[in-house]
Write a structure and sequence with these properties.
By secondary structure, the chain is an all-alpha fold. It is about 60% helix and about 0% strand. α8 crosses α11. It is globular and about 45 Å long.
Length: about 200
């Protein structure tokens, strides 16, 4: 006897599928990610250009630390458009646009591409911030900044933020990693979130 197949919303057949690696990474870092978002908003970086430049300085310090990853031949072979994803030049241009004194801030230690899983964890955080920058760009526009002046690094990729992000997470999902390496990737992503929080706290101190 045939049993009726389970149906979901609007009568579509539903099936349980295992989460992808990038989805597992998102779930494993959700708490520290949310905490960072709340901390950044509490610092009110878009209330004035003076405060915004402090946020920019933290961004610059973070991306300078990740420069070895964006320059890695091994990572560029895995992610062909990795070089163009590097936003450090756009951040430097934003700082030059504003011509305001930036706070003294020591850069974080460089993140060397010691292994693929650690590298992907740090890049996940950097690339994810570009996906979420649509909201930040709207806030920056309220203080007279645009993607041509002062908020260049918040601009969306021409193909769209979501498509650009999916292309990156596809590399995470397709890379051959052991369970132990996946755990290391998650730990690296958490380290990256904590690193940016420390830089932001210092910049706004």
């Amino acid at each position: 006897m045939l049993r009726p197949r389970p149906k979901g919303v609007w009568g579509r057949v539903t099936t349980a599928t295992a989460p992808t690696r990038s989805q597992r990474l998102k779930a494993a870092t959700a708490t520290i990610h949310d905490t960072l978002d709340q901390r950044i908003m509490a610092l009110d970086p878009f209330s004035s250009r003076e405060r915004y430049i402090r946020f920019l300085r933290a961004q610059q310090a973070f991306h300078v630390a990740l420069a070895p990853l964006y320059a890695s031949p091994t990572l560029r072979a895995l992610i062909p458009d990795l070089a163009e994803r590097d936003r450090s030049a756009a951040i430097a241009a934003d700082l030059a646009d504003l011509a305001l004194p930036a706070p003294a801030l020591s850069n974080a230690a460089p993140i060397e591409p010691v292994d693929m899983s650690t590298s992907l964890g740090w890049l996940y955080v950097a690339e994810g911030s570009s996906l979420g920058a649509a909201f930040l760009l709207k806030a920056a526009q309220q203080i007279g900044l645009t993607t041509e002046h002062g908020a260049r690094h918040l601009a969306a990729h021409p193909e769209g933020r979501a498509a650009h992000w999916r292309r990156f997470t596809a590399h995470i999902d397709s890379t051959d990693l052991t369970p132990e390496e996946e755990d290391r990737m998650i730990a690296a992503a958490r380290d990256a979130f904590a690193c940016f929080r420390a830089l932001a706290d210092t910049a706004f101190a």
